[in-house]
Amino acid sequence: MVSWFQREIIQELKPFEGRFETAWRIALICSLAALVFMTYGIPLVAIGCYLILFVMKPDPAESTLMAIGISVLVSIVVPVLVLLTNLAIDVPLWRMVIIAVSSFLFLFLGAASQLGPAGSILALVVAFIMTLLGNAPFGEVATRGILYAWLMAAVPMGLIIVCNVAFGRSVPRLLQRLVAERLNVVADVLHGHASADDVWTLLRKGNTEADSYMKYVALFHLIPKVQQAQLKAAVTRSYELLIHASQFDSLGTADDKTHVAQRGGSDSYATESAAQCRRLAQAFQAGQYPALPQQAENVSVRLQPFTNAMALLYTPVPEGGSAPHSGFFYPDALTNPVYQRFALKTTLAAVIAYTAYTAMDWQDIHTAMITCYVAALGSTGETVHKLTLRILGCLVGAAMGVLSILFLIPLMTSIGQLMLLVFAGIFCAGWVSSGSERSAYAGVQIGLAFLLTVLQGFGPDVQMSVALDRIMGILLGNLILYLVFTRIWPISAAQAARARLSAVLKRLSCYSGQSHPGPLCSPNQTAQNLAALDAVREQLSRVHFEPRSLRPPREELDLLKKTLKQSEGFCVRMALAQESRGTVAQWERQLTDMRHQLSVQPA
């Protein structure tokens, strides 16, 4: 009998479209990085390859844009570190001050702004460079070490950019497939072959992935501007179709239902609309830009939004009322203490790890400090979930690496053979890391532990002690991070979910308080809000990873889930049609009551 845990593993490891391609590309780029590092004698090859695993996503546009951003930021930061070298090289206190200040600064920027995960990478690079200065006998060697550290970050990012541009998945085709997937689901709904759950699965994804694709397409001018505009409009219109499809069963009026009953339970207009939707989907799937159908006349009220959206598929959708926009920093960047506390806790954990292995004179467990930067997340539930994946991945990756050292590496005589081993091991790690958020980080950790064990120098090496030391460092870092995040300013997943949910409700209140023609929310605004609410749902799923002392009462969880469901309903209703001022005023009162209920819950 298959247990729940086994079913979850099987589900997470199932193949899906694009997973194989993502896994082999990650493996190829890591193999090429190993070749470059070893050929030119660049140290820290395992960390360089790990950055590839960290940055590479199934979305090639997001990976490339992040690689470009990290390359630019690291290139700006490294010259500053060269100037600080003379100050810190002979004074351990100054090194500690620079590590603490830079870590806090970059971690805070990553948490409180659009910088995101790149902030943690910058903090890691700066801290790691400073720790290397203690082993440098004089300034020139230290400066060379800093330049090597820059290469450690720049080479992997450069390879990601080159490989994604040269033979990555076609981003315009990915956009077309995304539109086709939505159109097919809408067609199934019109035919009566799909349920509301199928629609909501796509609605909750939002347009984040599509926006990333569009930025990439525009940056590299992959297709003519006319086609760019058509694709952008098609993405928005297809999302609009999903919104209408989510309410299809409830849109029929009494006259519509009578009309359908008189036709023997079959609506010919719905069948024709579904067929048109399917034809559009097939054309997009084939990489074409199909001709659009004409707006049908005398269609039932419930089908009119579908025929209109299909006829206007290449026409941009007017945006609704604007919500407050914060720019680079989040609106509460300077007022919310959560961001500062997160930066302080992560910095403290990293400093403790650095102090511990320095005091013990055990430099080979420096992976303890690296762990603190790459495993820290906003809430305790998220962090413990990530630590759990990290430990499991560490054990699997270490086992793969140790077996390779025992049975494969002794037979190797060249870098090329080692590249094949790296490709095989990282392909397995990449397969896991390209999965869902529930398990993806385990794949990243499998790759890191594997790389740290098999890549120890500038060629095949069989030193078992170095591999075991690095694994011990990972486990030590996990322990330090767990203790810090569960003992100092712990933030429960429910508390973080409440804050996110309140922010979405505030945006919805802004929309309902504005007067303009058309729906209160555009499809793009609805996509943004539904994706944010889906992040709240993921946050709530992390509650069970927290210590019992941090878990909220069941009543509070029930309230959050209920409010989440109601908020999703508001998002859709605001995007459907122009409502009367009386209805909008009622919505405003309900949203105000929901925000008040959230605010009076214990923090």
UniProtKB/TrEMBL annotation:
UniProt KW keywords: Cell membrane, Membrane, Transmembrane, Transmembrane helix, Transport
Transmembrane segments: 26-53, 65-87, 93-112, 119-139, 145-167, 387-409, 415-433, 440-459, 471-490
Compartment list: Cell membrane
Superkingdom: Bacteria
Protein name: FUSC family protein
Pfam families in alphabetical order: FUSC
Topology of the protein relative to the lipid bilayer: Multi-pass membrane protein
PANTHER family assigned to the protein according to its UniProt record, in alphabetical order: MULTIDRUG RESISTANCE PROTEIN MDTO (PTHR30509:SF9), P-HYDROXYBENZOIC ACID EFFLUX PUMP SUBUNIT-RELATED (PTHR30509)
